[in-house]
Amino acid sequence: MRLALLSAVAVTVGIASVSAVAWWATAKSQRSQIDRALLAIPLSGRLQTANSQAQPAWPVDPEQLCRSLSGLSAILQPTIGSIQLVRTDGTACAQTPESMLPVTAQDIAAAKGGPATPVRDGTTQNGTHVRVITLPVGNGYAMMMSRDLTEVDNTLRTLTLALLLATGLGAVGALTAGLIVARAGLRPVNELTRAAEHVAATQDFDVPIVVTGDDEVARLAMAFNKMTTALEGARDRQQQLIADASHELRTPLTSLRTNIELLVRSEDAARPLPAADRQDLLRSLSAQLQELSHLSSELNLLSHEGPTLQPVDVHLEDVVRRAVERASRRGAHRISSDLQPWTVSGSPGALERAVLNLLDNAVKFSPPSSTVRVRLRAGLLEITDEGPGIPESERPQVFQRFWRSPSARAMPGSGLGLAIVADVVATHGGQVDVDQSPAGGAILRVRLPGSAPPT
Fold it and tell me: Rounded distance, CA 356 to CA 351, Å?
């Protein structure tokens, strides 16, 4: 409605402006024609024109003209509506009392020999609107000649009504057209509004908007569709994460509860467990608590959709070197590295965590005293182990959350390490995949966009 009203106001102002100019031009033209007729009065050359300063003597006694103005008016009728004589004392004589015009100081000055008055508006005794000019005729007299403006006023009045009607119709038409155009143009916005209200009320993101065209509203609809799709995906991933976490937490929590209940019952029954069994039970509880703590940390990392810090330029070779040093201190494995400089934009902490997870995975599946090889070339990071490798049928599931190979379920771990790697790499615009090395172990490759520093 506001858009339609603004359109109507703009159109109305435009029509009103044109109408005002048209009315002014018509009135100016009509009055100019009458003024030219009054300034060119054919009176045998004896009367001076409005611009003449000469004062010729009038050959006839002007008082006689007062008695025969009707005759003189008949001669001048084609160009003059009425005539009256003005004396220097301000009195005047006219054809009829009804056609008498009020005498001004300028008229008296003309009777006293002054210049002709400018053409002006006037009103007779009977209320007729006229244009008047006063010409000095000498001997203490001046002649006031007028032209009836009734026809001009009627024309202008008719024109005024027509223009007002046109302006009103234009305003109504503009308002109607504005409503039609606004409703048609804003229909996608209304659909977006209804969709947003539906999402807010039901939390249902499956409300795609049909997109037509490529204008700003279409772009807004496409952005809304992308937003709802992303929100639905995020909710699905959150629900899946919660379900997977609940499933994974059930086993360690059940084991913890069982072991703790066993300790409590032994204490309540005053039958303490043997020292060796008690020590094994406490070590099991400590390992399970560590596993829960590790699982909690990994779940916290997975709960973030992207880096929490502002991306910065990161020297990837330094990040990999720090991760190699940390992983080397965790077991009896040799880690060799061949790193070339490569700069990426991202979070150094998240990248180091991802590389460390890759190294931990390689170390975990490699036999003791084996070598894990790390190689970085032009944004391609390869980590090769000497373990049993990953069967080709299991490779598509390697980076899924909580997925664990059947052969590795007896080993410690939550199944989240490689899922964290996949998330970190994806947030940095990279790719990660797994392959088999010539020696039979696994090769995990990470490709990250960036650039080599200038040499």
Answer: 9
Residue for token pair 């210049």? 115
Topology of the domain comprising 312-447? Heat Shock Protein 90 (3.30.565)
Nearest to 421 by CA among 413, 406, 431: 431
Torsion angle in degrees (nearest 10) through CA of 30, 31, 32, 34: 90
Find, among 88, 84, 112, the residue nearest to 98 by Cα: 84
Q: What string of DSSP letters covers 245-289?
A: HHHHHHHHHHHHHHHHHHHHHHHHTT-PPPHHHHHHHHHHHHHHH
Using only C-alpha atoms, the chain has a radius of gyration, in whole angstroms, of 52
Point out which residues pair with 131 in neighbouring strands. Answer: 121, 147
pLDDT at res. 218: 79
Which pLDDT score is estimated for 361?
83
In this structure, what are the phi and psi dihedrals at residue 442, rounded to the nearest 5 degrees?
Answer: -100, 145
The answer for residues whose C-beta is within 8 angstroms of residue 377's C-beta and 6 or more apart is 340
Fold match flag (39-148 vs 216-302): no
> Which tens digit of pLDDT belongs to each residue from 134-169?
988 877 888 888 888 888 899 999 999 999 999 999
Range from 39-43, 115-119, 134-138, 390-394 that averages highest in pLDDT = 115-119
User: Average pLDDT, stretch 398-404?
Assistant: 69
Residue 132 pairs in a beta bridge with 120, 146
Residue 450 phi, psi dihedral angles, 5° rounding: 175, -150
Collapsing DSSP to helix, strand or coil, 169 comes out as helix
pLDDT single digits (tens) 47-84 = 433 344 444 445 556 666 676 665 555 545 545 567 88
Question: Which residue bears the tokens 């399970």?
Answer: 288
CA neighbours within 13 Å on the CB side: how many for 306? 9
- Domain locations in the chain as residue ranges: 39-148, 216-302, 312-447
Domain 39-148 is found in CATH 3.30.450: yes
- Give the whole-angstrom CA distance, residue 245 versus residue 416: 10
Q: Which residues pair with 312 in a beta bridge?
A: 346
Structure tokens at 428: 């940095």
Kindly indicate the confidence band of residue 46, based on its pLDDT and cuts at 50, 70 and 90. very low
Instruction: Kindly indicate whether the domain formed by 216-302 is annotated with CATH number 1.10.40.
Output: no
C-alpha 185, offset from chain centre: 15
